[in-house]
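Problem 12. The chain below contains 171 residues. Write out its predicted structure in token notation.
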Amino acid sequence: CAVIAVPGIMNLASSLLSAAWQPQLVRAPSRRAAPVSVRLLLVDDCRINRMLVTAVLTRWGIVPTIASDGEQAVHIAERQRFDIVLMDLLMPVMDGVVATAKIRQAERENPRRAQVPIVAYTSLDLAADPMRMARIGWTAVLPKPCSAISLRACLARWCPDSFVGNGHSRH
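Solution.
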């Protein structure tokens, strides 16, 4: 499990706790959001990270499929289609680099299967090397720890029809 800085945990956790501990700051939505149809695979070996990201996603109506290592992610991706994959990089059994390569290889072998956006969800600074990202097969990088705002922006960018179309870009 990758070590996460405490301030980073607070970024994501604060959006969850603000509703619980400071209800006067939370406005009721003017209309009920439409059900979200984002099919998201969350791959992370750290249980705390999975819990925090899942808590934010479920607030938006997204129930992610979870994998705790790259090998599980590859097996799941073979059987199901996803709109987006959030892939941790440093994991036991199979890391995110190898898992991404295997998922991309399976996509190349099946031309009817659309290429899924795979977002490197990591504390490593990868955005400075776009050539390496493209070589490995990552679509983008979501820095870990992330805030609910950056997670929302990621989903709005890479799943616009499923996420933004359901009114979540404004909440």
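Discussion. The beta strands are 40-43, 65-67, 84-87, 118-122, 140-143. Students who got a different answer should revisit the alignment rule from Section 12.3.
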